[in-house]
Amino acid sequence: MANLLTKILRMGEGRKVKVLQQRVGAVTALEPEIEKLSDDELRAKTDEFRKRIAEGEALDDLLPEAFAVVREASRRTLGMRPFDVQVMGGIALHEGKISEMKTGEGKTLAATMPVYLNALSGKGVHVVTVNDYLARRDAGWMGEVYSFLGLTVGLVQESMDFDQRKEAYSADITYGTNAQFGFDYLRDNIATSTEQLVQRPLSYAIVDEVDSILIDEARTPLIISGMPESAADIYYRFAAIMPRLKAGEDYETDEKKRQVAPTESGVEKVEKALGVENLYDDVNTNLVNHLNQALRAQTLFHKDKEYIVRDGQVYIVDEFTGRVLEGRRYSEGLHQAIEAKEGVQIREENQTVATVTIQNFFRMYDKLSGMTGTAATEADEFMHTYKMEVVSIPTHREMIRLDEDDLVYKTKAFKHKAVVEDIVERHKKGQPVLVGTVSVDVSEHLSGMLKRRGIKHNVLNAKQHEREAETILEAGEKGAVTIATNMAGRGTDIKLGEGVEELGGLYVLGTERHESRRIDNQLRGRSGRQGDPGESRFYLSFEDDLLRLFGGQRMQGLIERIGLEEDVPIEAGMISSSVRRAQEQVESRNFQMRKRILEYDDVLNKQREVIYGIRRDILMGENVDTIEYVEDVLTQVVSEYASADVYPEEWDLDSLQAEINRFYPATVDLKSLDVETLTGEQVRELVLKDARARLEDRKAEWDERMAELERRGLARTDGVASFEEAERRTLLSVVDSRWREHLYEMDYLREGIGWRGLSQRDPLVEYKREGFDIFQEMERGLKEDYVTYIYRIENVKLREEEMQQYSYSGGTEEPNERPKSPRRADAKVGRNDPCPCGSGKKFKKCHGQPGAPPLNVPISSTDAPDLRTG
């Protein structure tokens, strides 16, 4: 099905190319006229274009002229005139498509034209790269073109502070990595004032190595965490138990699906080791997760493959690039379980404060485009997820690289031996060799074998990625041998040294087929750039994970039928087709996993849009409609105790009185009402009228206090200049608190929702339904918290002065406030029990929250957010 969809999407490639070629002709026709312009006249074109856009001219209409101007500016500043195929790639990028341009075809230069054209709108263009080095390199290199034409260029790097970031985002064009753009978006959405914002609205982005960023990294969400919760000891205890469990007896492993599950025997052993009677009791539910993660860490995650240990810390290794994913950690306790397994210090668990998936972040841009050398195999996923069409751009010169058939050995040992022999032979004649491996340990194993043969070489893997770009540049020199983990140095061209063309060009040797054909194509694409000679070959063994797990019975039957000797390779079409089918199977599975992750995150994304919309309105100075919040909350309260659906004599006015007093200091006396002459609607209007009056009193009191501050020369010293500003800050504080709690609840729901499938219910449907219910509950709680706080907030600076003056007089109570009554928790309080403080909330949502004051500290209904910090 996937192949059929891909073929459909690829239909009409020739026609698409012809249309692009026609548009290139319009650009080229303008060259003689543009070439005659002086530097100043060429620069003045930018102002002219901006004026025409302001007058309503569309960017599409400006394209031929703008592209011709950039082409000429590039020739004058960089000495490089973009080829016609590069202009074609640039047009596809402007149209919001993916330009598939082979390695060495000059994607970086092709992007300058659509970047310039779209930057003229004044909305800002983001150019996204795979690492800080490439962002820095391209911003400096292509920045010469933009600066020459009068545009500003910004660069976002991991090490930059707030002021530097804000300046970078204010530029016409901003370079950075997907992580930097994504995390800055999240930080903007937990900011407490407009001064803390760095980004403008997301307008247009060009993603370099788009398959790496939007496909390979799509399963790793961006997360900002906080509120640590320590549980290190239990991780170490489980790590100590795991080696005692036996595979097949105490747990079952499915390597293909990367799943592991304990058996009854295993559970019994763990229960005995921990000294618990039943691991699955409600009080022990966290232990079940600890067991599952410890098993996963022990059986499915291996040092120097999925992760490395460096400087006493566990770092995740990107399975596609071999790079360390700095700042990334496995979720749900898995990372801590691996740390315990390796005996390093466990870094404390954090609660999610803000999160977004790569897919949903980039789908927020008004227009998105990308470029890569390998996108065709994922064309259907790009269309399904991002609505981006893939356009294959012809090469400037014909590809002449020789791609040899795979050599397949019976065992890894003999495969590695043959690989080294091939490298030694190539090295003797001076032909440069780039060796691609799928894991860190294989690269280091081959390095050791080459050392023993006296072959000088460079190793690029997750442990040396800082110098990868510089080293990869030397990989095309005569006699060079470079071992690279997958696509190390991606984005950096390997240029051939003197005399290398006569030796056959760069030889790319793959030591194993990757799960994705696209990654294999990326490795092969390092050779044969711009019509250069080159050669590539993959060495496989029947012990490789891909063939072992996905080759199937046909592969095993073939081995037995031909009686393959360990040191004799085979070249067979059946092997190649089996490998291709295995890769397609894995690609399809990975696509479904990414699709499922996106479907789940879409639920949270809709909620995120609501909350972030509220936050943005508050930060932009929108006044809070406090009355609307008050009416919503109190209407709900009245309907519960004085419903129109029951007889008035059945109303519980005593409870209603107590409940409305919880939200605001009511003056209406509901107990004395004559229910026989009132309707439920009249009771509601009485309460709302009283609440509105009390709110007006509160505002008047605030204004009085502000006037007093001004008389004392203290106005604005606490950052709150008006009651409206206090409303905004209070709501912002409540929104953030409730949203953090909601993310925790959604994480918890997501962890266990998969079990619904056992009862023939679709987990995704259940997640949507329950997630909606949880969100509605969060919204209700948000409004209730806000109403409770807004009637009781104080002007902090004035309150401090009054407190200080009052303490001099020896008083024991604070002015204008009821005495606080200390309450103490005399017995253990259940998380779902009413909080003893009298708030009416459950303990877990009141003083049972992380960071809440202990119950033996005086609690007052006047407790509210500190407006100095928002």
From TrEMBL:
Key words, A-Z: ATP-binding, Cell membrane, Cytoplasm, Membrane, Metal-binding, Nucleotide-binding, Protein transport, Translocase, Translocation, Transport, Zinc
UniProt record, GO biological process: intracellular protein transmembrane transport; protein import; protein targeting; protein transport by the Sec complex
Domain annotation Helicase C-terminal: ranges: 419-570
SUPFAM superfamilies: Helical scaffold and wing domains of SecA, P-loop containing nucleoside triphosphate hydrolases, Pre-protein crosslinking domain of SecA
Coiled-coil blocks: none
Biased composition annotated in UniProt, kind: Basic and acidic residues: 815-831
EC number per UniProt: 7.4.2.8
Catalytic activities: ATP + H2O + cellular proteinSide 1 = ADP + phosphate + cellular proteinSide 2
Membrane topology classification: Peripheral membrane protein
GO cellular component assignments: cell envelope Sec protein transport complex; cytosol; plasma membrane
Location in or out of the cell: Cell membrane; Cytoplasm; Membrane
Molecular function in Gene Ontology: ATP binding; metal ion binding; protein-exporting ATPase activity
Entry cofactors: Zn(2+)
Top-level taxon of origin: Bacteria
Domain Helicase ATP-binding residues, every copy: 88-246
Region (Disordered): 806-870
Domain SecA family profile per the UniProt entry, residue ranges: 2-571
Binding annotation for ATP: Q86, G104, E105, G106, K107, T108, D493
Pfam hit, one: SecA_SW
Function: Part of the Sec protein translocase complex. Interacts with the SecYEG preprotein conducting channel. Has a central role in coupling the hydrolysis of ATP to the transfer of proteins into and across the cell membrane, serving as an ATP-driven molecular motor driving the stepwise translocation of polypeptide chains across the membrane.
Description of how the protein assembles with itself and partners: Monomer and homodimer. Part of the essential Sec protein translocation apparatus which comprises SecA, SecYEG and auxiliary proteins SecDF. Other proteins may also be involved.
Homology family: Belongs to the SecA family.
Identification of the protein by name: Protein translocase subunit SecA
Annotated source species: Rubrobacter tropicus
